Amino acid sequence: MEHVRDVMTSNVEYCTPLDNVYEVAVKMKDLDCGAIPICENDHLLGMITDRDIVVRGVAEKRPNSTKVTDIMSEKLVTADPGMSIDDAANLMAKHQIRRLPIVENNRLVGMCSLGDLAVNVGTDDEAGFALSEISERPEVHH
């Protein structure tokens, strides 16, 4: 059985609470990604996604200089690197998330995405299940 540590991305770029929305957006563009963890001394404080920028930033007419902590998501679902890939996929499906921060001893040690699950041998079923659950209409979930 493979574990999350076997498939996660361990070199995770992040921003700090001192960064603003513009800086996060530029980092997303440069890294071609849709989510950036917000950390202080490797401790995960929150996550900001491209959707957060649109919904909590642009749609609320906030300036680009808005602090990331004003629009980031703080109630995060996280996993331990020792969690099985199957359990991680189920967790992602249950909470309808595409990116799962991996935390050990209160420190961000990696990120596991649906893509990480999909490109690894033997995890196609887990990634497919998670994606189908995430992509379903909300009224389908109980």
TrEMBL record:
UniProtKB keywords: CBS domain
Matches recorded under PROSITE patterns: CBS
Keyword hit for Secreted: no
All residue ranges annotated as the CBS domain in the record: 8-66, 72-127
Membrane is among the record's keywords: no
SMART domains assigned to the protein according to its UniProt record, in alphabetical order: CBS
Record Pfam families: CBS
UniProt xrefs under Gene3D superfamilies: CBS-domain
InterPro entries from the UniProt entry: CBS_dom, CBS_dom_sf, Diverse_CBS-Domain
PANTHER family named among the record's database cross-references: CBS DOMAIN-CONTAINING PROTEIN, CBS DOMAIN-CONTAINING PROTEIN CBSX3, MITOCHONDRIAL
Protein name according to UniProt: CBS domain-containing protein
